Amino acid sequence: MAAHTISRTTIAAVLVATIAALVGRAWLQIRLIQDGAQPLVAADISYLVVPPILILLLFPLWRSEKTFLISQFDRKKLTWKLALSAIAIGVLVRLLWWSQLVAGVSFGIYTSSDPNAIVGPTLSFQCASPTIVLLGFIVMAILVPLIEEIVHRGYFQTALRHRGAIVSVLLSALVFAIFHKLASWPFAFLAGVIFGTQYWVTRSLWSSLISHATINGLIQVDWRCLSGQWNPRADELPLLLPGVTAVLVLVSSLLLLFFLIHKMATEARNSPR
For the ranges 21-30, 193-202, 224-233, which has the lowest average pLDDT? Predict the structure, then answer.
């Protein structure tokens, strides 16, 4: 993790500017929806105002922090091994989400209150138009991870570096989760812990950025291409076969995550600083 001192004033400026940019984005998103835009399209288009707002509000900071920002994306630290490990971590995190969802439905933790809901399971794959899909990937798999990793790992976690790995990773993950929708807090917090650990052990943003982009890219496939329903009747629960299988996948994914991050940490310790 970068040995860089970041003042409380700098952190406050970054967080306030981020909040201002997201408020501007929310206002535009609402206006676009009111004008008839689809919610997902409105969400993507409105996010395009976030980077220029941040650049404008934090321009003096970017100039003074230029060396630090460049060091976070040192090309020497971006290797094929690191990139492939980071992609694998992203896939495993998304697999965790799917496995807990299947397990939750199988054991009756997640249920639908709609009596007319389709029992299923039904699953179809049909993507939106290429333009909408491309826009979604540009925003969610490139811009969002880049901005969030710089803000939450690059600045907030680095500012807490002196408090040690556990405190800095957990607090940065907590702030990261708060910047997401309430329903996404548990998953966002877990992802934030994983990203923060990657950042701590590799001392650059490449690993967490690639994992973040992988997760968001897979989410875009879910949102824009997949359509499914699965609402088992109460008298059918628990569904042991899919439930137990999902739990085994979840546990296996967690073990693989620990292995990859431990391996990444070992390689980082053995590499020249």
Answer: 224-233
Which residue range forms the structural domain that includes residue 123?
75-270
Q: How far apart are CA 32 and CA 44, in angstroms?
A: 11
- 180 φ, ψ (degrees, to nearest 5): -110, 175
**Domain-located, residue 133:** yes
User: What one-character-per-residue DSSP string does 132-153 give?
Assistant: HHHHHHHIIIIIHHHHHIIIII
Say what the pLDDT of residue 6 is.
85
Residue 154: DSSP 8-state: I
Residues in the chain: 273
Backbone region of residue 170 per phi and psi (left: phi > 0; alpha: psi in -120 to 50; beta: other values): alpha
Kindly state whether residue 213 falls inside one of the protein's structural domains: yes
- What average pLDDT does range 228-242 have in this prediction? 86
Residue matched to tokens 């790992």: 153
> Using one digit for the tens of pLDDT, what is the confidence trace for 194-223?
999 999 999 899 999 999 999 999 999 988
**Rounded Cα distance, 167 and 171, in Å:** 6
Let me know if residue 34 belongs to a domain. Answer: no
Residue 190 lies in a domain: yes
Assigned token pair, 151: 């803000």
CB 204 within 8 A of CB 73: yes
Number of structural domains the chain divides into: 1
Contact assessment for residue 168 and residue 196, using Cβ atoms and an 8 Å cutoff: yes
